[in-house]
Amino acid sequence: MKQERKNRIIRILEEFLKIGVLFMLTISIVIMGIAFFDTNTKGEAPVGDFSTRDFNYGWRIEGENHLWTTTLPTELDRKPGEMTIMVNTLPSDIGDGMKLMIRSAMEDVYIYVSGEERAVYASERIDGMNYYLPSAYVVADLYRADRGQEVRILIRHKTAGIINGVRIAHGNDAWFSIIENGLPVISAASIVLILGLVLLIAVLFLGRTLSVGAIRQLSLLMINTALWVISESSIRQFIFLRPSLSQYYAYLLVEMIGAFACMYFDEVQHRAYHKAYLVCESLVFFQIIANILLHTSGVMPLYRTILVSHIWTAVCAVVSIVCIIKDILNGRHREYRITMIGMISFVLLALVELAGFYVNRFGVFGTWICIALIVLMTTTVIQTVYDAVNAFAKKEKTQMAMTINTLETISGAIDARDEYTGGHSERVGLYASRLAREMAAEYDLSEEDILRVHYIGLVHDIGKIGVADNVLNKSGLLTEEEFSLMKKHTEIGYEIMSSLGESIDGLLDGIRYHHERFDGRGYPDGLSDTDIPLIARILSIADSYDAMTSNRVYRNRLTDEQVRAEFRRCTGTQFDPALTEIFLGLLEKGELSTYTVNGAAADAVGTVRMSSLLDTRLQQDLLRGVEVESPSHVRMLCYLMKLMEKKGKDYDVFFITREEVPMAPPVMRDFGTSIGTDVGTRETQSILTSQLKDHISPHDVNIRYTAKQSIIALYDRNDEQIEHFFQRLAKVCPHTQVEKLGESVAENSAQK
Question: Is the pLDDT of residue 565 over 80?
Answer without folding.
Answer: yes
